Amino acid sequence: MAVPVVDPSLNPVTDADPVEAESTRRPRRRPARADLLALGAYVLLGVFVCLNYWGDVNGRVSSHLPTDHSWFEWLFAHGEYSVRHLENPLFTARQNAPDGVNMMANTSLLGVTLPLAPLTMLLGPQVMYSLYLGAALAATAGTGYWMLSRHLVRSRAAAFVGGAFLGFAPGIIHHANGQPNFVSNFLLPLIVVRVLTLAEPGRWRRNGLVLGALVAYQIFINEEMLLLTALACLVIVLAYAVQRPRAIRAAAGTFLAGLGVAGGLALVLTAYPIWFQFNGPQSYRGLQGGVFHNWGEDLVAFVTFARDTWAGDPAVEKTIGLTEQNTWFGWPLMLLSVVALVLLVRRSLAARIAAVLIVVFSVAAIGPWVRFNGVETGVRGPWSYVSDDLPLVEMMMPTRLTLVVAAAVGVLLALTWDAAHRQGRPVADRPRVPAQRAAEGAPAVSPEPAEPVGSRRRWLRPVGYAAVALAVLPLFPRPLPAQQIDPPPHFITAGGWRPYVPAGRTLVPVPIPSNVHGLPTLRWSALTGQEFPVPGGYFIGPNELGEGVFGAPNRPTSSLIYSTMDTGTVPELTDENRRQAVEDLRFWRASVVVLGAHPREAVLRELVTALLGSPQRVDDVWVWDVRALVG
């Protein structure tokens, strides 16, 4: 989310020097070497961030969000299954059988998993997860670099620094712990640039079509980040309009025409999926209790180093508490940002707009109550005046608004480095295009350069470089923390289950997958290509009131399994428990119940045996063939 300038008469770096503005608009050759070096560095950094996964890619998951990690592995398997079986990817019955899951109403990442389905078939979902995670980080930094180098700054080093922050900011790295949808931001810089060039004379139709296609595709990657980008673009345009009202009035017609084309095309391309999201099977309205509404940003978080950075400390999480670390920038970067804004806002339109974004979205992210160092102060925040029943608002998490702040800070870093790069340049020796020199009555070829009056400020260049480096180096990411996880049973991976699960029936793993329990058993489905459906799962679906809840509503038998896991003891069972177990198995359309290696294996086997009778030991699992029992 950057701040390109829509008025072609202005320099994107500074609006105080018409000579510089004229030379900025002149077409020039772009050295490919700098671009390739930047992209190569981003790729290496992406590999470094995922280094702990590659040590055992098939046996490790995020130690911060292991359930989310497994969910996204399952999503890659879903994309492969949908393509291989030519099934509707917007819905699946391979999880939460027999009701299924509305994939458009979940973070399904269809824009990634479907086109990458052939690679998932070849490499498997675990490899694809780690491969894509690093690639998405690098790609976001790459498109950020392109946006900055082509539209905002002259220095390729400045664009590199800004792009690196856009792709690898502390908040983005935090989400990389199991949530690749929030690091898949590579289309957002392209969307912002296209929005802010809609007013380009004579090209509104083409620009609108490109924008509409980008928006439609982003909907299938992450709708929440698209919403944040749209809000950021709205603030950018309004801030620009206040400062350049004549330019806005002159370009309003062209801008609105292009916006209409973009909106029309995006609507045509996504009308059915969006309808399916809100009206298809297993759709829902809002989340029960507005669970995300209270997640505001702690004020101390802005000056705190994030856990997964070189200067970060995991213990700080226990102090600040409920936060996603979206703005854990550290005090050096915050200090640099304040100083840079003070120095740049007078001459740089882009810096002024970045300042507006930082202030607006920082305040909006506070949430319903102001929190300071993990403690609610009792001071009302902006979200206390917003109803959590409003459409879209009910699904938003206030702290994530600060992802816009992170993007604005990335742009500000690029502007700061670029400003330092220009310090000490001879003012009288700045290039002037032939048309301008002819208008001034001067020859087209520049005479000998005048005295370099700006050279006296050349010392500011290394000072600026050092200030940016000292602010961002403590934020260099560490490899994401990973933990070992047991592989699926050989009975599952070798296909020993096939004789027990005929078409139309399900395999019931113990424990039944949920957002709290059953992490390994959810992976059974993912790592076998979703060949058998399972009950339960990790998703958001409707409760009896149509509100969104995490996971399937518990049935008596699943609740009994979870309570036994939590307590480590089998409760006293009744005939009603046994009758209900059979009833639940019929509801799930079960044909076999399977228990593999598990820390609670002994007590779980005792429980299921008491409910269903004695099991068979088949390969490395316990099997209860329930086909005769459920009919």
Automatic annotation (TrEMBL):
<protein>
    <recommendedName>
        <fullName>DUF6311 domain-containing protein</fullName>
    </recommendedName>
</protein>
<keyword id="KW-0472">Membrane</keyword>
<feature type="transmembrane region" description="Helical">
    <location>
        <begin position="328"/>
        <end position="346"/>
    </location>
</feature>
<feature type="transmembrane region" description="Helical">
    <location>
        <begin position="36"/>
        <end position="55"/>
    </location>
</feature>
<feature type="region of interest" description="Disordered">
    <location>
        <begin position="1"/>
        <end position="27"/>
    </location>
</feature>
<dbReference type="Pfam" id="PF19830">
    <property type="entry name" value="DUF6311"/>
</dbReference>
<feature type="domain" description="DUF6311">
    <location>
        <begin position="89"/>
        <end position="375"/>
    </location>
</feature>
<keyword id="KW-1133">Transmembrane helix</keyword>
<dbReference type="InterPro" id="IPR046278">
    <property type="entry name" value="DUF6311"/>
</dbReference>
<feature type="transmembrane region" description="Helical">
    <location>
        <begin position="392"/>
        <end position="415"/>
    </location>
</feature>
<feature type="transmembrane region" description="Helical">
    <location>
        <begin position="353"/>
        <end position="372"/>
    </location>
</feature>
<feature type="transmembrane region" description="Helical">
    <location>
        <begin position="129"/>
        <end position="148"/>
    </location>
</feature>
<feature type="transmembrane region" description="Helical">
    <location>
        <begin position="157"/>
        <end position="176"/>
    </location>
</feature>
<feature type="transmembrane region" description="Helical">
    <location>
        <begin position="226"/>
        <end position="242"/>
    </location>
</feature>
<feature type="transmembrane region" description="Helical">
    <location>
        <begin position="254"/>
        <end position="275"/>
    </location>
</feature>
<feature type="compositionally biased region" description="Low complexity">
    <location>
        <begin position="438"/>
        <end position="453"/>
    </location>
</feature>
<feature type="region of interest" description="Disordered">
    <location>
        <begin position="426"/>
        <end position="454"/>
    </location>
</feature>
<keyword id="KW-0812">Transmembrane</keyword>
